[in-house]
Amino acid sequence: MPELPEVETIRRGLAPMLARQRFLAVMAGDKRLRQQSSLEEFSKWVAGRRLKSLRRRGKYLVFNLEGGATLLIHLGMTGRLMLLPSPAPALPHVHLTFQMEGGLDLVFQDTRRFGQALVFPPGETPPPLAQVGREPFSKKVTPQWLAEQARGRSRPLKNFLLDGRALAGIGNIYACEILFAAGIHPGAPVSRLTLKEWARVLKETRRVLKAAIRKGGTTINDFLNSQGETGLFQLDLLVYGRGNEPCTRCGTPIARLVQAGRSTFFCPVCQK
């Protein structure tokens, strides 16, 4: 699933290309996404309107349109959002095509159809954004704030990081890498972490996410940026997907366990 660095990479690729561009038309494929507004709603609130700004909120792309409407896109597990010369070539699993006035088509392709493409009229705040927590780079996120969110809770630290209602945008890949960098076991109960440990988690969260953004994200299976290019951060992964390989620090085989239905990779010696 595209995480914060992948979504931010796509935003940075799209924003300069679509700045002040008008959406000329919206075309829908035969099969709908898990959550998708009707073609009538897209035609009413998107077609004919210029893009005012494009921002990222957690794992969502937020298109602010002329007139006050909002187009909200989530890539789900296998979604791709690509800019192609218009008319875009016929591709499989295309669910929406936004024809732009600059001679480009913005194409939403999603094999598994878990993505979202929703439009909200002027004055309506998109409800999904109300469930998104604070951005990891926000000044409001401090070790003290993280400790407060964890107070009285016994859930494992890895699961806490994956809960986007507290800290936005972190998924399985980066949670593993962050905790390895911080030297903390993924199963550590969050209520027992000290402020010093929360400070390490926050420091490494920001460092790892920034490094991944610089490398254009991580491509394991499906992720491509808006120009159809893979990310490169997978070359820098130290634990994720490296089960039984030697730890780069101590040589101990990287261990794997399942938490909340997802594989967690960690070093049993370096992460206590």
Q: What keyword list fits this structure?
A:
11 strands, alpha+beta, five-stranded mixed beta sheet, 2 domains, 23% strand, four-stranded antiparallel beta sheet, N-terminal domain of MutM-like DNA repair proteins, 272 residues, Helicase, Ruva Protein, domain 3
Number of strands: 11
Percent range of helical residues: 10-25%
* CATH evolutionary superfamily of the largest domain: MutM-like, N-terminal
User: So what's the overall shape?
Assistant: globular
Kindly name the structural category: alpha+beta
Number of domains: 2
What is the element string, with H for helices and E for strands?
Answer: HEEHEEEEEEEHHHHEE
CATH architecture heading of the largest domain: Alpha-Beta Barrel
Task: Please explain how this structure is put together.
This protein has helices spanning 4-18, 39-45, 143-150, 157-162, 172-182, 195-214; strands at residues 23-28, 35-36, 51-57, 60-65, 70-74, 79-85, 94-100, 104-110, 116-120, 255-259, 262-266. The protein is built from 6 helices and 11 strands. The radius of gyration is 20 Å and the shape is globular. It is an alpha+beta fold. The longest helix is centred in the C-terminal third of the chain and has 20 residues, at 195-214. The mean pLDDT is 94. It folds into 2 domains: 4-131, N-terminal domain of MutM-like DNA repair proteins, CATH 3.20.190.10; 143-266, Helicase, Ruva Protein, domain 3. The strands form 3 sheets. It has a 5-stranded mixed beta sheet, with helices on one face. Strands 1-7-8-6 form a 4-stranded antiparallel beta sheet. A two-stranded antiparallel sheet has the order 10-11.
